[in-house]
Design brief:
CATH class of the largest domain in chain A: Mainly Alpha
Number of domains of chain A: 2
Shape of chain B: globular
Number of domains of chain B: 2
Strand order of the largest sheet of chain A: 1-2
Structural class of chain A: mainly alpha
Helix content of chain A: over 70%
Number of helices of chain B: 20
CATH architecture of the largest domain in chain B: 3-Layer(aba) Sandwich
Number of strands of chain A: 2
Largest sheet of chain A: 2 strands, antiparallel
Oligomer: heterodimer
Helix content of chain B: 40-55%
Strand content of chain B: 5-15%
Largest interface: A-B, 59 and 53 residues
Distance between the termini of chain B: 30 Å
CATH topology of the largest domain in chain A: MetI-like fold
Radius of gyration of chain A: 26 Å
């Protein structure tokens, strides 16, 4: 008897350690695909960042030269600064705007669906289409100029996308126009999860609207906030299409982000080694943010 | 064939941004190192022509291929790729194991750079049958080792385009030298018309035409070529002289030109909102026939009569991959493309104002074309365009320097120092 039991239990134990073929497939196939399309090129990218390469001849190893050059490159510093400015303005304003819109539109009223749909609509358009539409707004004698003339502010008119003072801000606005709708939807979902009973209780206790927002609603949005924060940071770092479609980082690098500078260094100047070095910097920045977020998330869970 | 220009990007905005989006993000090398072969693999006899031509020029090359296939010397197919993708992928096509056979692209330093890396097919054999071609084109098609690597199809010219009816209305005459040009600018400005149109938004490379022309008028074509090859410095006082001259004309530039691309600058010129526009003949591509008849141009004014006159004449044509699986058919197609018959068919089917490369082939029967042809024939030297005489990699350094100069002309010294620094990085690789 005892022997039978023991063999049985070993067999069971062994079986429980062997994953099902289906599970193995689900893990290994994506891993293999990722290895070919993501991990391997990423490792190669790091390798290329230590070389000088025009895409034609064999890469020439140059050690840390590309990184040393990055440290002294004013265009790179400008792009880094612009990327930080982009993160702060694009991120901050889309959170404020999205949250404000969600608060204004959370109560079910007649026609509220139309407003929500209208705000969400820009998200449906591709960024490039958005850029083409805004380019028409910004063009000389375009909508923006006409509106300014109509309200008597024609002295403010300038070539919005061609003036280094305004180019970056002129690109942030269309990006925001799209992002606010997206953030609004996330907050609307978050607000739906806020327990109405707590609100009732607070109301009974005599809390005013502002106090209820600050002490009841916002603390309950913690989970959504974490999601939105990571979405914003990742969206900011990968912003490329709208800038490229509107200004290509110009005029003379004034609206350059790290992503656009990487593209132009690699594919326009054909300095693929230098472009890879910029890509590695972007990767490290993204990694730092994501790891920071994951560490916090795990700590809170445990 | 003006669609050859790498920088005519606006129409391709969508495709371009698509590529951009794919390559954005930290995995840059995914694009650069694993792009694989770009075109249709060649097997057996069929050869592939990888083309960036669109619109009317595309129908011209389609007709060319169809006529070649009827000859029975081989079969060819056309593979059209958007210009911006073509430009960024060309190195990958050429260095892949199984590349397309033929490519539409540029003569001169661009072709030579690929030839230096042994990527281009030696087409000296084809040139043996091209005895009618002038020496200038033969030189342009010859690489550093003395073999021919390029077969020219056509060229076109740059000049100050204007509408005859508008000049008549304003009572002005085309100028012949710089002083007359300045007077013309003053006259037009006094009439409330921005005299000089330009389109730098999205197409900043248009400014390079000004730099090229001022440099070849003031310092001459040999200095210009050396400068673009990295043998002279951008912070040289001779280059500064170019900008000092340019500054005289800057107050007459259309201030809106910074914000819109050259296509809209063309529309502004045709609508009489600007007086004249330094541009290539491709401005006529999207212009109505009756308006083209009203178009005329004048040569970039002479500044120093002692400098031999040079003109910009970008040459378009074909080169072939050294790894072509069927070099015999590839050369047969090139030989056919170089014939009078093929070039006349091509010119007739592509509506743009272009000049066939074969001296005996007839161009379109228009006074404008005859005038352009005469201007090029009378030039002591021909240059092509900034990126074609240097490289596509050097073009962005010019775009940055020139748009900044137009915005802040008092910073010439700082701009030129920076330009030199950026150019050195490109030459270094």
């Amino acid at each position: 008897m005892t022997t039978v039991i023991s063999t049985n239990s070993t067999a069971r134990r062994r079986r429980s350690f062997r994953p099902s073929p289906l599970l193995l497939t689900f893990v290994l196939v994506p891993f293999a695909i990722e290895s070919i399309w993501v991990f391997w090129p990423a490792i190669q990218g790091v390798f290329f960042s230590f070389t000088r390469w025009d895409g034609l001849s064999a890469p020439v190893p140059v050690g840390f030269d590309n990184y040393v050059e990055l440290a002294g490159d004013p265009v790179f510093r400008g792009a880094l600064g612009n990327s930080v400015l982009w993160l702060v303005l694009f991120g901050g304003l889309s959170i404020l705007g999205g949250f404000g819109m969600a608060l204004a539109l959370q109560r079910e009223r007649r026609g509220v669906g139309i407003y929500r749909a209208a705000l969400f609509l820009p998200v449906v358009f591709s960024m490039v289409v958005t850029a083409l539409v805004w380019r028409v707004f910004y063009q000389p004698d375009g909508l923006v100029d006409q509106v300014l003339t109509a309200v008597g502010l024609e002295h403010l008119i300038r070539p919005w996308l061609a003036d280094p003072e305004t180019a970056l801000y002129a690109v942030i606005i269309p990006a925001l126009w799209r992002q606010i709708g997206y953030i609004m939807v996330l907050y609307l979902a978050g607000l739906k999860a806020v327990d109405p009973a707590v609100h009732e209780a607070a109301k009974v206790d005599g809390a005013n609207n502002w106090q209820r927002l600050w002490h009841v609603t916002i603390p309950q949005l913690k989970g959504v906030n974490a999601v939105i924060l990571s979405v914003i940071v990742i969206d900011s770092l990968r912003s490329f299409d709208i800038v490229w479609a509107l200004t290509r980082g110009g005029p003379y690098h004034s609206s350059e982000l790290l992503s656009t500078y990487m593209y132009s260094a690699a594919f326009q100047s054909l300095r693929l080694g230098y472009g890879s070095a910029i890509a590695v910097v972007i990767f490290l920045l993204a990694l730092a943010v994501i790891i920071g977020y994951l560490v916090r998330a795990f700590r809170e869970e445990s | 064939m003006s669609d050859f220009d790498p920088s005519r990007r606006r129409l391709l905005g969508l495709g371009l941004a698509g590529v951009g989006a794919l390559s954005a993000g930290p995995l840059l090398s995914a694009c650069a190192s694993s792009a694989g072969t770009g075109g249709t693999p060649t097997t057996g006899g069929a050869i592939t022509l990888q083309s960036n031509l669109t619109g009317a020029a595309k129908s011209g090359v389609e007709k060319l291929i169809a006529d070649f296939n009827k000859l029975g010397k081989g079969t060819a197919s056309l593979n059209t790729v958007a210009t911006e993708i073509f430009r960024t992928q060309l190195p990958t096509y050429l260095s892949s194991a199984n590349p397309p056979d033929l490519y539409t692209w540029y003569a001169g330093s661009v072709a030579n750079a690929y030839s230096e890396k042994n990527l281009l097919l030696d087409v000296s054999e084809v040139w043996q049958g091209m005895g009618d071609y002038p020496q200038s084109l033969r030189t342009l098609a010859t690489d550093a080792t003395g073999k021919q690597v390029f077969v020219p199809m056509n060229n076109y010219w740059w000049g100050f385009f204007y509408r005859k009816s508008n000049f008549a209305k304003w009572g002005v005459q085309p100028p012949t030298n710089w002083a007359e040009f300045m007077t013309l600018c003053q006259t037009l400005k006094a009439k409330g018309i921005p005299p000089i149109g330009i389109g730098l938004g999205d197409t900043p490379w248009v400014a390079s035409a000004w730099f090229d022309y001022l440099n070849i008028r003031i310092n001459g074509a040999p200095f210009h070529r050396e400068l673009l090859a990295g043998k002279q410095r951008f912070d040289d006082p001779k280059v500064k002289a170019v900008f000092t001259k340019w500054r005289e004309a800057l107050p007459y530039f259309d201030p809106k030109g910074k914000a819109y691309p050259f296509q809209e600058a063309t529309t502004a010129l045709l609508a009489g909102k600007t007086g004249m526009f330094l541009i290539g003949t491709f401005l006529a591509d999207a212009t109505a026939k009756d308006v083209v008849e009203d178009l005329d141009f004048f040569q970039f004014p002479i500044i120093d009569p002692a400098v031999p006159v040079a003109e910009e004449a970008p040459t378009d044509g074909f080169f072939a991959s050294a790894k072509s699986a069927n070099p015999a058919a590839t050369k047969a197609l090139l030989a056919y493309a170089a014939s009078v018959e093929a070039q006349e068919t091509y010119v007739a089917n592509s509506s743009g104002i272009i000049l066939p490369a074969h001296p005996k082939a007839k161009a379109a029967d228009m006074p404008l074309v005859a005038k352009g042809k005469a201007m090029l024939a009378g030039a002591a030297e021909l240059t092509q365009f900034f990126n074609r005489d240097s490289s596509d990699a050097l073009q962005p350094t010019a775009d940055t320097a020139l748009t900044r100069f137009i915005d802040k002309p008092d910073q010439i010294d700082a701009i030129l120092a920076e330009w030199q620094k950026n150019a050195e990085k490109v030459f270094k690789g």
